[in-house]
Amino acid sequence: MSNKIINIKNINGTDFGLAAMPVIFVLLWSTGFIGAKFGLPYAEPFTFLFIRFVLTLMLLIPIIWMMRITWPSGTALWLHIGVSGLLVHGAYLGGVFYGINLGMPAGLAALLVGLQPLLTAAFAGPLLGERLTKLQWLGLLLGLVGISLVLGSKLEFGTSLFAGFGMGALLCVMAALVGISLGTLYQKRYCTSMPLLSGAVIQYIAAGVLLGIGALLFETRQVEWSMTFMLTLSWLVLILSIAAILLLMALIKKGEASRVASLFYLVPPVTALQAWWLFDERLPALGLAGMVIAITGVVMVVRQPRQAAA
Fold first, then answer.
1. Which one, of 181, 213, 202, lies nearest residue 87 by Cα?
2. What is the per-residue pLDDT across 176-218, written as a single tens digit (0 to 9) for each?
3. Which of 29, 174, 226, 267 shows a CA-CA span of 20 to 30 A to 68?
4. Which residues contact 160 (CB under 8 A, 6 or more apart)?
5. What does the alpha-carbon distance between residue 26 and residue 299 come to, in Å, rounded to a whole number?
6. What is the share, in percent, of the chain residues with pLDDT greater than 90?
7. CB 202 within 8 A of CB 72
8. DSSP class per residue in the chain
9. Beta bridge pairs of residue 54
10. Confidence grade of residue 281 (pLDDT, cut at 50, 70, 90)
11. Which pLDDT score is estimated for 222?
12. What is the pLDDT of residues 171-182, one digit of tens each?
């Protein structure tokens, strides 16, 4: 009887919490594009992101000091964490924000970055020894089809898919795609032993330096401190840069890189729902069908056991 009680507690407590982590992450992460839409009219992208990271560090460092959290040991681990920060935060956020700033539609940027699970799964085998089953590869392809339908139903393609912006915007978003894909794999390979909070500080410092240099070289660094901008900045700092990123690192630490990456398939559909709620952007039937297909693909990737690499 006592064993049954313990099992029930585990199901209702710890196991439920672990199962809810991916759902919470997707809900939080999907607000990033919404935040960009609100904030970019008031500040240039690198300046916007630099301010975001500085404020995040001002909150995290005192927390680490008060909680007496240990810092990573060894110069090599510090360097590895810094590299992962440049990729996961600097390249990804800088590329997406700057691409949107150069004229790429946010929906198309989300679609291109949504290719990440395919890149991550393709490289996870040779780099991390992970191998996907045929059914999981099918799930990855279904996810790609699903987000294509969701965002394709919202885009006006016209005569050219990339009409309205130059090659620079495309290169920025592709750099973001490569950055988040390589960063996920790099962190899983070299940074699994890092303390989450102090490790996040090192990552933010590295990304902040990169984005600060970008702001100095390419931007005027002027900011319109409106109420909308300050509220958006607060949300991005507290919810995205602290809560969601720490949750992402915990998920990477607990699971294979390609499985964690598959969660990003759900971000465009959830973002579309938030845009409908906030901006009355309605999804046609094709978009709703795409959501179902994307969710099905994610479930196929997450639920199926992996094969060990030979």
1. 181
2. 989 998 998 898 889 888 887 899 899 999 999 999 999 999 9
3. 29
4. none
5. 14
6. 29
7. yes
8. -HHHHHHHHHHHTHHHHHHHHHHHHHHHHTHHHHHHHHHGGGB-HHHHHHHHHHHHHHHHHHHHHHHTPPPPPSHHHHHHHHHHHIIIIIIHHHHHHHHHHTT--HHHHHHHHTTHHHHHHHHHHHHH-EE--HHHHHHHHHHHHHHHHHHHTT---TT-TTTTS-HHHHHHHHHHHHHHHHHHHHHHHH-TTS-HHHHHHHHHHHHHHHHHHHHHHH----B---HHHHHHHHHIIIIIIIIIHHHHHHHHHHS-HHHHHHGGGGHHHHHHHHHHHHH-----HHHHHHHHHHHHHHHHHHHSPPEEP-
9. none
10. low
11. 95
12. 898 899 899 989
- Of 97-111, 164-178, 223-237, least confident by mean pLDDT is 97-111
Phi, psi of 217 (to 5 degrees): -85, -35
Mean pLDDT of 274-302: 74
Q: Are strands 307-308 and 130-131 parallel, antiparallel or unpaired?
A: antiparallel
pLDDT digits (tens, 9 = 90+) for 70-80: 999 889 999 99
* Alpha carbons 237 and 51: distance in angstroms, whole number: 9
Averaged pLDDT, 273-278: 74
Q: Is 165 left (phi over 0), alpha (psi -120 to 50) or beta?
A: beta
Which tokens in the block code for residue 65? 């000091």
Determine the Cα–Cα distance for residues 296 and 118; give it in Å rounded to an integer: 16
Q: Is the pLDDT higher at 63 or at 222?
A: 222
Instruction: Read off the tokens for 106.
Output: 């946010």
- SS3 annotation, 10-36: HHHCHHHHHHHHHHHHHHHHCHHHHHH
Q: Which of 90, 100, 151, 109 is nearest to 290 (CA)?
A: 151
